DNA sequence: ATGGTTGTAGCACAA
């Protein structure tokens, strides 16, 4: 008998090799069908394939590069590699698309790592911020021109923007902080509108409630200060919206030994 | 208001 649901997790792991023990613990305890990682920070040849295979995840698609960025899809179910797109044509490993079979039919799954954008939210002095804005514009155009959100589609990843007022610990304090500036929020909102995507996390948690997926390493006590942001997202196309069953933000993962600064976000969909 | 930490690579830079 097949499972009644399909569990998909997104997690910015901040080095998959360093945190392989955490990934293994997560897969054993939470057993998602599909785990999407960002910031794997290794070349494809260095990716810990065998360890993940032996944990029951035999189907893996990766787009890596040396030291920076890198995305991976790790699956219990068969997947078909579809493409890696080079947004902004810089040769960065920031996207991968696969197709996964659910009982109700195939699902296209896009895994993204959007540029963080540097410290200064000023395109005149900070080219990294310009890159981030260009990347978001290109995502929007691509979604429209290629009809990316038509059919059964899931888009996950570290989008590095916290769009709503309660996606950050203080809306006012973060208006000039990269990740929550009005121009970034406007561009991510345009990405959402371009595909008429459903924000799967906010489907379960009202907009008035605080919701975070990331807490800085720089806080003396991340849990006490709780200055989080919702940088990680799961978007589903309209065709899949009716099948949303459950959300889990694994806040505990931020207290694990040598943690990532991001925690795993899991969605359950009708199979 | 400022500065705080982490990873990779190799003592600088990105996040």
UniProtKB/TrEMBL annotation:
Q: Where is this site: Important for catalytic activity?
A: 232
* Essential cofactor(s): Mn(2+); Mg(2+)
Extract the PROSITE patterns matched here. Answer: AP_NUCLEASE_F1_1, AP_NUCLEASE_F1_3, AP_NUCLEASE_F1_4
**What EC numbers are recorded for this enzyme?**
3.1.11.2
Molecular function terms from GO: DNA binding; double-stranded DNA 3'-5' DNA exonuclease activity; endonuclease activity; metal ion binding
Note the site residues: Transition state stabilizer. Answer: 160
- Gene (name only): xth
Binding-site positions, Mg(2+): 12, 39, 158, 160, 261-262
- Give yes or no: UniProt keyword Manganese: yes
**Residue ranges constituting the Endonuclease/exonuclease/phosphatase domain according to the UniProt record:** 10-262
Q: Which UniProt keywords apply?
A: Hydrolase, Magnesium, Manganese, Metal-binding
This chain belongs to the protein called Exodeoxyribonuclease III
Q: Where is this site: Interaction with DNA substrate?
A: 262
By its UniProt entry, which Pfam families does this protein fall under? Exo_endo_phos
Which species is the source of this protein? Methylocystis hirsuta
């Amino acid at each position: 008998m097949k499972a009644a649901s399909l569990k998909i997790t997104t997690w910015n792991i901040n080095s998959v090799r360093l945190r392989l023990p955490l990934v293994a613990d997560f897969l054993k305890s939470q057993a998602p069908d599909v785990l999407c990682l960002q910031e794997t920070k290794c070349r494809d040849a260095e990716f810990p394939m065998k360890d993940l295979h032996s944990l029951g995840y035999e189907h893996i698609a990766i787009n890596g590069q040396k030291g920076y960025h890198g995305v991976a899809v790790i699956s219990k179910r068969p997947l078909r590699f579809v493409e890696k797109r080079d947004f902004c044509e810089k040769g960065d490993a920031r996207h991968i698309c696969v197709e996964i079979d659910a009982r109700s039919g195939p699902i296209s799954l896009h895994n993204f790592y959007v540029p963080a954008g540097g410290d200064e939210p000023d395109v005149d002095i900070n080219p990294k911020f310009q890159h981030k804005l260009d990347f978001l514009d290109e995502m929007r155009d691509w979604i429209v021109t290629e009809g990316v959100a038509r059919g059964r589609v899931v888009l996950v990843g570290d989008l590095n923007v916290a769009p709503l007022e309660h996606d950050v610990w203080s809306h006012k304090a973060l208006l000039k902080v990269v990740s929550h500036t009005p121009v970034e929020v406007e561009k991510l909102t345009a990405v959402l509108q371009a595909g008429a995507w459903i924000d799967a996390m906010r489907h379960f948690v009202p907009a008035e409630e605080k919701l975070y997926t990331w807490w800085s390493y720089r806080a003396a006590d991340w849990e006490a200060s709780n200055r989080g942001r919702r940088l990680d997202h799961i978007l589903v196309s309209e065709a899949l919206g009716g099948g949303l069953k459950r959300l889990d933000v694994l806040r505990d993962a931020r207290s694990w030994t040598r943690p990532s600064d991001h925690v795993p976000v899991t969605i359950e969909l009708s199979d």
